[in-house]
Specification:
The chain is α+β, with helices and mostly antiparallel strands. It contains six helices and four strands. Helix 5 runs antiparallel to helix 6.
């Protein structure tokens, strides 16, 4: 028997990779739900609500215009790096398209301390470096898992969800090295 709508409890949490604590996600999620119940939920309306210092959304935003402008330009630069694709023409004229630049972590060393920073590397640099390539494959796997988690509840997407679950399982299964056999086993 399905649960009545009123019996469902909503608990808001940050999406994987989000820069929010669980407590912040709960506070912001409740306020955003309130805004949706009382009108259309749009970025403009969220910002308008957040301008009020009493709004729980207020502290999420940077209100120093000089700092906000710098952060916004950095965000624009990040978007630009993510927005460029590259078409690669193979020897037989086949065309593949991929991101021109990938966001990866590279190790740094300073004062006998090791840490990593996030940088963008060209597709060529990524394809030529096994560690960078492994990072991009891991990111793709996370993206697939995120897509599955967001949309598998929709019956219209059940076929796609099934294929994605299978692809995830295949990608997570360690691949055996060595020559591949063709034909039946002898």
């Amino acid at each position: 028997m399905p649960l009545a709508r009123a019996a469902l409890q909503k608990i808001y949490s940050p999406m994987p990779g989000a820069r929010l604590s669980s407590k912040e996600a709960e506070i912001y999620g409740r306020r955003l739900s309130y805004l949706e119940r009382t009108g259309e939920l749009t970025p403009d309306r969220v910002l308008e609500d957040a301008k009020d210092p009493r709004s729980p959304l207020h502290k999420y935003f940077m209100w120093n215009d000089k700092n906000a402008a710098i952060k916004y330009r950095i965000s624009q630069a990040s978007y630009l790096l993510r927005a460029i694709a590259i078409k690669i023409v193979g020897p037989r004229g086949e065309i593949t398209e991929t991101r021109a630049f990938h966001n990866v972590a590279i190790p740094m060393f300073e004062n006998d301390e090791e840490y990593s920073i996030r940088v963008y590397k060209s597709s060529r640099s990524v394809f030529d470096d096994d560690d960078l390539k492994a990072q991009v494959v891991a990111q793709a796997l996370e993206y697939l898992e995120g897509w599955k988690d967001r949309y598998e509840r929709y019956s219209e997407l059940s076929g796609v969800s099934f294929l994605i679950r299978r692809a995830i399982k295949t990608l997570k299964t360690p691949q055996k090295k060595g020559p591949r056999r063709r034909g039946p086993k002898k």
